[in-house]
């Protein structure tokens, strides 16, 4: 399999992703025996729940220091010291110092750390991760009335790796409604898996929240579950106004994704995001950094 590469906004260079659990992913999604195991139990919620509980065991605290060393993480960003986490999961969904993720002075900011793809028309996405397969926005939203409001709008996919900060935030100001849960299996959302079948993105268990905004109409925010994601936990209060960059929730153990969808002709996504996405290359950027502006504005 080809290595996973992305463009780093901060180093201005293409980099190769260090994939957590790479050998297992290649076996599960590329080996005939692995695919049997994948469909028999790996994709099933009980497997991820079991693995998530394992990461809550006090003994997993021993994994924290080696993980930090292996991925050369900046502990100065952490709100708490590495030694203070009672288990690996607590470290995994750690909080950061507010200064570690400043909020950009633009209308839209990235909702999470990760590797991002952005498209002006969510129904004209083809070739992302796998050639010839188009994005199924209707299946992703799983609500025809809501789909009608967002078809033809812009979409940003933010993919989080296990090494990333795993709290997700609101990309703009507004008032969020209740979160709707859409049940499904839990396939991996690593490119290793998505190169086999992009539809995992709209088959997996996911959560969906409508954000009412003063200038952008409605914004649809989804969190996508994945293999070994123990939980998608929401920490915001529904029907209460939020500021851009406020925390919405967090993922327990495992890499996953968030998706932000805008109504047509409402936003102007950042030029570097669109440029690299057009070449099917993800852009690495951190939560709070510029994702775009209201249509017609440019700061």
Automatic annotation (TrEMBL):
Chain coiled-coil ranges: none
Cytoplasm recorded as keyword: no
The organism of origin for this protein: Rubritalea profundi
GO molecular-function term, one example from the UniProt record: phosphatidylserine decarboxylase activity
Keywords: Decarboxylase, Lyase, Pyruvate, Zymogen
Annotated GO biological process: phospholipid biosynthetic process
InterPro entries on file: PS_Dcarbxylase (IPR003817)
The protein, known as: Phosphatidylserine decarboxylase
């Amino acid at each position: 399999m080809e290595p996973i590469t992305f463009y780093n906004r901060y180093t201005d260079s293409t980099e190769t992703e260090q994939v957590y659990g790479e050998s297992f992913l290649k076996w599960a999604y590329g080996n005939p025996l692995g695919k049997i195991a994948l469909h028999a139990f790996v994709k099933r919620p009980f497997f991820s729940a079991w693995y998530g509980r394992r990461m809550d065991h006090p003994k997993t605290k021993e994994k924290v220091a080696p993980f930090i060393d292996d991925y050369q993480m900046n502990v100065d960003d952490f709100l708490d010291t590495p030694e203070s986490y009672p288990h690996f999961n607590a470290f995994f969904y750690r909080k950061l110092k507010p200064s570690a993720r400043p909020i950009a002075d633009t209308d839209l900011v990235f909702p999470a750390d990760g590797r991002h793809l952005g498209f002006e028309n969510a129904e004209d996405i083809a070739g992302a991760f796998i050639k010839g397969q188009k994005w199924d926005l209707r299946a992703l939203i799983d609500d025809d009335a809501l789909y009608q409001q967002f078809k033809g709008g812009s979409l940003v996919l933010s993919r989080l790796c296990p090494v990333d900060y795993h709290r997700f935030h609101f990309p703009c100001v507004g008032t969020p409604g209740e979160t709707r849960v859409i049940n499904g299996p839990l396939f991996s959302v690593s490119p290793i898996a998505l190169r086999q079948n992009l539809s995992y993105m709209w088959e997996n268990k996911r959560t969906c929240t409508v954000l009412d905004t003063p200038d952008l109409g409605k914004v649809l925010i989804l969190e996508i579950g994945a293999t070994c994601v123990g939980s998608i936990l929401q920490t915001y209060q529904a029907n209460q106004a939020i500021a851009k960059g406020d925390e919405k929730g967090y993922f327990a153990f495992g890499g996953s994704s968030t998706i932000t969808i805008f109504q047509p002709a409402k936003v102007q996504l950042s030029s570097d995001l669109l440029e690299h996405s057009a070449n099917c290359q993800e852009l690495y950027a951190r939560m709070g950094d510029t994702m775009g502006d209201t249509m017609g504005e440019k700061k």
